[in-house]
Amino acid sequence: MNLLQSKNGVDTHYHVFNAGVAIEGARYVPQYSASLSTWLQQAQSVGVGRGVCVQPSFLGTDNRWMVDSLRSNPDVLRGIAVVSPDESVETLKVLNEAGVRGIRLNLAGISHDIPQWSQAHQLWQTLQEMGWHLEVHTDQGKLPQVLQQLPSELPLVIDHMAKPLQAQSNDATLLALKARARVSPIHVKLSGAYRLGDVDSARLARLLLQELGPHSLLWGSDWPCTNHEQFANFETLMAQAHQWIPSEFFEQIMTENPMGLYWNSF
Q1: In this structure, are residues 23 and 62 in contact, taking their beta carbons and an 8 Å threshold?
Q2: Which of 69, 80, 157, 167 could be 204's S-S partner, Cβ–Cβ 3.0 to 4.6 Å?
Q3: CA atoms within 13 A on the CB side of 31
Q4: Is residue 6 over pLDDT 70?
Q5: Spatial separation of the C-alpha atoms in residues 157 and 138, rounded to whole Å
Q6: Which tens digit of pLDDT belongs to each residue from 34-70?
Q7: 211-236 as b/e, with b when 16 or more CB fall inside 10 Å?
Q8: How far apart are CA 192 and CA 227, in angstroms?
Q9: pTM of the prediction?
């Protein structure tokens, strides 16, 4: 697959925001802006023509920047929103019309006990009726604890290679992913290697491919790599993707899987 010629690649994880804008009490406040135009320019330079804009945690449930960007490029962009457990059906429908296809539960750095989400029965029902999924981000090694608290039938996307403690097939996170995949749809994003601590990202990518299969994997740049901005170089990120993904599965993971999940194609 020649991405530079086809521009068919899909970046399933990038962010947009303005400098200095964050919710009250945010643990991180960006000191620079990450614009849609900059992401588009850099992504297209390596053959990525579509993207999924993920609401960053420091903007909370104020999805305006993300939604505005989706509406400016409705054919090539989709979004993942952040909402409250009791979000109204009306608001979710508005987000859906804007191009949102799921919600994100970002537990990094906070408690992984989530009773308010475990009991969000109306929200989960609405998500499934609209064909959405839940995107989950946890601290390292915490995913199994979170999966136990979520409805077993809920489609999931797991951020940043699921962040296991080890790149081993008997790691609790890998075992939990395999168990979940047997009962409901699950995808894992190959992204954010710098968020894995000492875990070898190339070894982990091969392990995820082996244990879950290529149909369960996506790729994301994590641009602009908040708190790790030195890695926000698309040429380097794409070279890493080629290291992670065997050539025979590259088109499936870079294009077919995300097109099916976010655009209902393939």
Answers
A1: yes
A2: 167
A3: 2
A4: no
A5: 12
A6: 999 999 999 999 999 999 999 999 999 999 999 999 9
A7: bbebebbbbbbbbbbbeeeebbbbee
A8: 11
A9: 0.96
Of the candidates 56, 240, 197, 39, which has an alpha carbon nearest to the alpha carbon of residue 135?
56
The chain-wide mean pLDDT, for the chain, equals 95
What is the CB neighbour count within 10 angstroms for residue 88?
13
Tokens of 189: 């994003």
Q: How far apart are CA 172 and CA 183, in angstroms?
A: 17
Vertex 206: Cα angle to 204 and 209 (nearest 5): 110
Residues in the chain: 266
Residue type at 231 in one-letter notation:
F
For the CA atoms of the chain, what is the radius of gyration? Answer: 17
Please write the tens of the pLDDT for every residue from 218-231.
Answer: 999 999 999 999 99
**4, pLDDT greater than 60:** no
The torsion angles phi and psi of 95, rounded to 5 degrees, stand at -60, -40
So what's the pLDDT on residue 152? 95
Q: Which residue has the tokens 């993207």?
A: 51
Measure the CA–CA gap between 33 and 129, rounded to whole angstroms: 35
Is residue 21 packed enough to be buried (19+ CB in 10 Å), middle (13-18) or exposed (0-12)?
middle
Q: CA 101, 128, 204: angle at the middle one, nearest 5?
A: 65
pLDDT beyond 80 at 215: yes
Q: State residue 259's pLDDT score.
A: 97
**Domains of the chain with bracketed CATH:** 3-263 (3.20.20.140)
Q: What residue type is 223 in one-letter code?
A: W
DSSP 216: G
Region 151-177: what's the mean pLDDT? Answer: 97
